[in-house]
C-alpha cells in the first residue's frame, strides 16, 4: 500500500493543487453529503438509531481512497488532464480529515443533550 501511495503521489505536481483547490472543496462537500445524508437516514430506519447516534457512524463512511486515485491515474493515461490526479488526491486527503470535526460536533451535541435532561 505504501508503494502505491508513494508512486501515485510522485505523479502529482504540487503546483497544480492551488489550481484545483476550489473544485476539490466542492468535490469534498458533495462526497460528504452523499455519504452523511443516506448514512443517517438508513441507520435511523434500519438500525432504529437516533440521528445523534447515526451521525458519527455515517461520518465514518466519508473517506474516499485508493479507487479514486486509480480512476484518476487511468484518466491521465487516456489523455485527460493531469489535474485530475491532484484533484483526486486533495479530495482523498480532505475526506480523510473531515470525519474528525463531525465526530467532535456529534459528541458535543450529545453531551449538550444529556446535560439538558
Describe the structure.
This protein is mainly α. The chain has one domain (17-111). Helices cover 79% and strands 0% of the residues. The protein has helices spanning 2-9, 17-46, 51-59, 66-77, 83-97, 99-116.
Summary of the model, kept short:
By secondary structure, this protein is mostly helical. Helix content is 79%, strand content 0%.
Question: Which features does this protein show?
Answer:
single chain, 117 residues, mainly alpha, 6 helices, 0% strand, elongated
Helix and strand composition category: mainly alpha
Helicity range: over 70%
How many helices does DSSP assign?
A: 6
Distance between the termini: 47 Å
Let me know the largest β-sheet.
none
Radius of gyration: 17 Å
DSSP E strands, number: 0
Helix and strand succession? HHHHHH
Shape: elongated
**Poorly predicted residue ranges:** none
Kindly state the mean pLDDT as a whole number?
A: 87
What is the fold's blueprint, element by element?
Elements: H1 2-9, H2 17-46, H3 51-59, H4 66-77, H5 83-97, H6 99-116
Helix pairs in contact: 2-3, 2-5, 3-6, 4-5
Amino acid at each position: 500500500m505504501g508503494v502505491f501511495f508513494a508512486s501515485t503521489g510522485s505523479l502529482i505536481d504540487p503546483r497544480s493543487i492551488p489550481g484545483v483547490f476550489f473544485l476539490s472543496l466542492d468535490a469534498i462537500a458533495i462526497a460528504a453529503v452523499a455519504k452523511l445524508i443516506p448514512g443517517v437516514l438508513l441507520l435511523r430506519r434500519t438500525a432504529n438509531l437516533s440521528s445523534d447516534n447515526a451521525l458519527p457512524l455515517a461520518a465514518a463512511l466519508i473517506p474516499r481512497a485508493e479507487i479514486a486515485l486509480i480512476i484518476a491515474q487511468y484518466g491521465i493515461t487516456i489523455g485527460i488532464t493531469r489535474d485530475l490526479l491532484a484533484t483526486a488526491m486533495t479530495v482523498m486527503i480532505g475526506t480523510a480529515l473531515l470525519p474528525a470535526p463531525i465526530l467532535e460536533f456529534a459528541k458535543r451535541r450529545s453531551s449538550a443533550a444529556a446535560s439538558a435532561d
